[in-house]
Structure formats: C-alpha cells, structure tokens
Amino acid sequence: MSSERLCRTLLTLTAVSCLALRNDPAAAGSCYGLGTTATEAQISALDIDVRPDGQGLPLGRGSVEQGATLFAQVCASCHGARGQGGPAERLVGGIGTLATPQPVKTVGSYWPYATTLFDYVRRAMPYDKPNSLTADQVYALVAYVLEMNGIVAAGTTLDAATLPKVEMPNRHGFIVSTPAPEASSSAPRERTTPVVPRS
C-alpha cells in the first residue's frame, strides 16, 4: 500500500471515529481514558451566571447595613475601608469622569448593570476564596458597594426582584451589539460594547 493511500485510509478512519464519538460523548471519554461525564449537580454548581435583566439571580436578600459589616471583614483589606482602593482596584467614585482625559472606572462610574456586579462578586470574590459567599452575603455586599457610590439609599435591602431595577449611572454608556435575546434560557447572551462619551 502506498504511503498516500495509507494516509487517506487513516484520515477516513479518524473521521468516521470522530463522527461516531460525537454522537456519544460518554464513549469519547472512555475511548481515550480521559475525564468523566459531568453530573447534573456538577453542571448546576457551575451554571451561576446572572444576566443584565436579572435572570439567574438566586433567592436571598441583603441590606446595606449587613454589607457594611461584611465588607469590613472580607473586602476592606484589598479595596480600602470605603472602597477607595488599596492593593486592589477602587470601587467608588469616578462618576462623570469617563469623558475626561483620565477616566476613573469604578462600579459607580463604569458598570452598566447592578446585576453583573452581583455575578462578578459571587464568582470571583473574595480574591482568595472565590465563589465562597452565600447569596445573602453577595446581595449585602452589592447593596453596600452601590450605597457607597450613592446609587442606592442607606436603608436599602436588595434581592432578586429589586436588584435588576437599580439604575446604574452608565447604563446607557454601552451599545447592545446583538439583538436582545428571547425570553428563553437557551437564547444567546446579550453582548455590549462600551461607548466612549464625547466631551
């Protein structure tokens, strides 16, 4: 058999194998001895995204007062006592600076949706223990950060119903670059592009 024919035969066998395995992902893992099929519980633990409209927010609630206490315990060492910054980025201030030569991008000045703040804090904070906070703790921290930016009042309590209603100062500073998704969990995610304000 010529080497060219052998190569074509091997490519054909590889393609047929790939097509067969594509229809049975479990067989693909066992065929190569790699990995396992994820369980529903494993998938659910990772499926924690929150959309700008609030879809995906969990049950729970947290107040500005609770957030202030928790912020002092787990956030202030990196972000400063009042979110002014430290070893990590500042969280407060900068409103009205985006069109200046030195914009200050903070939660208050740059973020378009309060719901994405919840999503980020839940996934990534605290830095040394990401995804370790309860939903109540995340709601409380988000309430406190928003209060420090003057976006919500001191007595505010946030939950899945109230958080999506929070109007962020830069909410209209982003352009939706894809059509809004249908009200289906399988719809594609909305993508936004920042808009640089003109002075």
Summarize this structure as a short list of keywords or feature phrases.
Cytochrome Bc1 Complex, Chain D, domain 2; about 200 residues; 2 domains; two-stranded antiparallel sheet; two-stranded antiparallel ribbon; mainly alpha
Count of domain modules? 2
How far is the N terminus from the C terminus?
72 Å
Radius of gyration: 23 Å
Q: What is the average of the pLDDT values?
A: 85
Assembly type of the chains comes to single chain
By secondary-structure content and strand pairing, the structural class works out as mainly alpha
Strand order of the largest sheet: 1-2
Q: How much helix is in the residues?
A: 25-40%
Main β-sheet, in a few words?
A: 2 strands, antiparallel
CATH class of the largest domain: Mainly Alpha
**Helix and strand element order:** HHHEHHHHEEE
Name of the CATH homologous superfamily of the largest domain: Cytochrome c-like domain
Strand content: 5-15%
